[in-house]
Amino acid sequence: MSVGEREAFLAGVRLGVLSVSESDGDRAPVAVPMWYSYEPGGELYFITGAKSRKAELIREAGRVTLCVHNDDPPYRYVSVEGPVTAVDEPVGETERADLAHRYLGPDLGDRYLGSTTGEGLALFRVRPEHWSSADFGKRGE
Asked: Which whole-number Å values give the CA distances from 42 to 34, 64, 125, 134, in the listed order?
């Protein structure tokens, strides 16, 4: 994929799989599905429990990998790895609402926001530094 194609793909509404290394090296990386937000040329962000094992590992490692893909042929994926540039605690309501509306739409997003609180959450910002991508529909071109 070109730079523009991979950035547009990452900016699309897809679940990402976030991976972060275990600190002791005795286990494989933690990999979990995540809601995230990304604007081309900028940083990405995601929200998770501030005291979760995942958040602890992210703070220790200082960097993460996020991989997104499409479910239908021709298959495509984008994987980015980079440093955590900021951790926001508490999470701002704007970012929380943006993610809920991005993934659930306005009505269901508002219902989700009304039934949850932002307490105990942390927002992690990541600068994409290393990119890997493929568009299997372009094979043979």
From this structure: 18, 16, 10, 21
Q: pLDDT (tens digit, 0 to 9) for every residue of the chain, 141 residues total?
A: 999 999 999 999 999 999 999 877 778 888 999 999 999 999 999 999 999 999 999 999 999 999 999 999 999 999 999 999 999 998 989 999 999 999 999 999 999 999 988 889 999 999 999 999 999 988 755
* Structural domains in the chain plus CATH codes: 3-132 (2.30.110.10)
pTM of the model: 0.92
Return d(Cα 48, Cα 52) in angstroms, integer: 8
